[in-house]
Design a protein that fits this description.
The complex is a heterodimer of chains A (375) and B (232). Chain A is α+β, with helices and mostly antiparallel strands. Chain A is built from 8 helices and 21 strands. Chain A folds into 2 domains: 161 residues, no CATH class; 143 residues, Cyclophilin-like (Cyclophilin, Beta Barrel), CATH 2.40.100.10. Classes of the chains: A alpha+beta (375), B alpha+beta (232).
Chain lengths: 375, 232
């Protein structure tokens, strides 16, 4: 068990994939905003994928441990310290009873994840422990964690010293700029060609009024096709209005002239058009962006979005654990290694080539992970 | 039955049933939604993780690690109208409502705009048998129709920052009940003492798509009694 000494800015219990199967009742999935980092935290402490852990937003909590426990911290760097001594991210760590974990403001990224071996075993609601504070459900008493609360944990069983391979760690922006992948649709035919060009070529700024419900963006004005400007009354009066429809998570909702990216706690439906959708493999970037950060968007096809998704799924597994030196010595040297369906060639020349390609692709604003996939 | 079925993003499908809002189209949406849910109970490996019915569309979210978009689309396309059983299980509800102007914050302005007296607004609203097209926006929030043309209104120019929970509100041909305190731009005509959403119940939401609703007018005295009973 763990006692909350300081609650941080908004530290909430989340699980992955969250509260699924209830969107028709208006319940969003909730769950971690950066599910890449979250899933790797659970991998580090050998938890099941659906184990609950803590999401720390902007500033982390201080926690006192009642028993010995293996933990792992991933995601944003909130300079974690154990009894005053800095501890690394992306690595499983042993904490002794009565030790205190302290976290500060995030220096890189926005959300940090703390996984405990055995997982958090708070009371699930509609088959998920994820906190959805708007309806007061999940977590402990339906809210972010509070000072003095005891967080109940399952049985610890992992070991310290497990590390995530460098190549499996998401690369966070250090210059407050993010390139976010988008897929066209479902209502892309309501925006004209000028509007599409404007969206993809403009810099957007994440407004302060952004939270786990929606990310509001500041930028230039949109323009529309006749479908939006000459339409039946049932579609509403503004060009961005449409007959109320279901929204996928990641939908870029156009409210008047303001794009709002609907994230984990967002509404399930509404009457605004969705010209673009952020694919699930890029959700982690939204989770790690801070208000004031700059976004630009790059279009990918549905097939590319699915490839990115599949690759992220294979990264978020035991395959991303660095093998210890002893184990490597016992193993026969091999030139190629199979990571799921991705082949990573392991000699210098290939690495050099990969680096060059990475640089080229980064220029185009694409991600490193994608390059490896299309090798 | 489907006008179009197409992909959205990496793990979503939209089934478009037509461009209008009417009960016939919506009944098909709900029929397919119920059919898929029934299937999901026996076949866990379908890979569908969320289904969101709206007036004329069904949005399906699936897990790409379990199933491909091609096979989901094939499965959806194989659903025939004759498989649907939506007509047999429409639940009926009578929901008490108090139209006192203390709760019906916009009765006055609707009366002025639509040139119709408040008694007539109450009478017309009260005699309508509503049909729940869809649930959403907020947990437990029903989109119900159809109001008579005489009561058609547009959204408030500036939405309220706070609509009190349990307010009954109208816009265009629709009527809704706010389950929680929430921002909102609909015209408020009254308040119900009923809880639309109870998190400790097995089915937390009182209403479901396809349900039929009739409002029953109650006095302020009865409203206060019922409300204090409900809050016990």
């Amino acid at each position: 068990m763990v006692e909350v000494i300081k609650k941080g800015l908004e530290t909430s219990i989340q699980d992955y994939p969250g509260r699924i199967g209830s969107l028709n009742q208006g319940f969003p999935p909730s769950g971690p905003m950066d599910n890449w980092s979250f899933r790797l935290a659970n991998v580090l402490v050998e938890n099941k994928q659906d184990a609950a852990a803590l999401e720390c937003q902007f500033m982390g909590p201080s926690l006192k441990f009642k028993n010995n426990r293996i933990i792992a911290i991933t995601g944003a760097n909130m300079s974690p310290k154990l009894d005053g001594n800095p501890i690394p991210l992306w690595e499983s760590i042993e904490v002794k009873a009565n030790q205190v974990l302290e976290m500060e403001f995030a220096t890189i990224g926005a959300r940090s994840y703390i996984a405990f071996s055995g997982g958090i075993i708070s009371e699930p609601w509609l088959s998920s422990r994820s906190t959805f504070h708007k309806a007061g459900v999940g977590g402990i008493e339906g809210k972010a964690i509070q000072e003095g609360q005891i967080i109940p944990l399952g049985k610890s069983k992992s070991v310290a010293g497990r590390k995530i391979k460098k190549s499996s760690i998401p690369i966070m922006s250090t210059n407050k700029k993010w390139t976010i992948e988008v897929v066209r649709g479902p209502n892309d035919d309501w925006v004209d060609e000028k509007g599409h060009k404007m969206f993809l070529n403009s810099k957007w700024k994440l407004q302060a009024k952004s939270d786990r419900t929606g990310y509001r963006l500041d930028g230039p004005d949109w323009s529309f096709t006749k479908k939006a400007t000459h339409k039946g009354l049932e579609h509403g009066s503004n060009p961005s209005n449409i007959i109320d429809q279901g929204y996928p998570v990641g939908a870029i909702n156009l409210a008047g002239q303001t794009p709002i990216i609907l994230v984990n706690d967002g509404p399930s439906m509404g009457g605004f058009i969705v010209p673009y959708t952020v694919p699930s493999a890029s959700f982690w970037k939204l989770g790690q962006a801070k208000p004031g950060d700059g976004f630009n968007f790059t279009e990918v096809s549905i097939e590319e979005a699915q490839l990115l998704r599949n690759e992220q799924n294979s990264i978020c597994s035991e395959l991303s654990i660095e093998e210890s030196i002893e184990k490597n010595l016992l193993k026969k040297p091999s030139i190629t290694k199979n990571i799921g369906h991705i082949e990573v060639k392991d000699f210098g020349k290939e690495k050099e080539k990969e680096k060059i390609r990475d640089r080229l692709m980064e220029k185009k604003g694409l991600e490193k992970m994608k390059v490896r996939f299309f090798n | 039955m489907f006008e179009k079925i197409y992909n959205i993003s990496d793990q979503g499908i939209i089934c478009d049933f037509g461009s209008e809002i009417n009960k016939e189209i919506n009944a098909k949406v709900i029929g397919v939604f119920n059919y898929i849910n029934k299937n999901l109970k026996v076949k866990k490996d379908l890979g569908i993780i969320n289904c969101i019915p709206s007036y004329n569309k069904l949005v399906i979210q699936y897990d790409l690690s379990l199933v491909s978009s091609v096979s989901i689309i094939k499965y959806i396309s194989s659903i025939k109208e004759k498989y649907l059983t939506y007509l047999n299980n429409q639940k009926k509800f009578e929901i008490p409502i108090c139209y006192d102007t203390e709760y019906g914050l916009d009765l006055d302005s609707i009366s002025k705009q639509n040139k119709i007296c408040i008694e007539e607004i109450i009478h017309l609203h009260n005699e309508t048998i509503f049909y729940v097209y869809m649930m959403g926006f907020l947990p437990g929030f029903p989109f119900m129709g159809d109001l008579t043309k005489k009561l058609f209104t547009s959204r408030l120019k500036t939405p309220r920052v706070l609509v009190p929970a349990k307010s009954v509100a109208v816009v265009e041909k629709f009527c809704a009940i706010y389950p929680f305190d929430s921002p909102g731009g609909w015209n408020i005509i009254g308040k119900t003492p009923c809880k639309l959403f109870e998190k400790n119940k097995k089915n937390p939401s009182l209403l479901n798509p396809g349900a039929q609703i009739k409002f029953k007018s109650i006095s302020k005295k009865v409203f206060l009694e019922l409300e204090s009973k409900n809050n016990e």
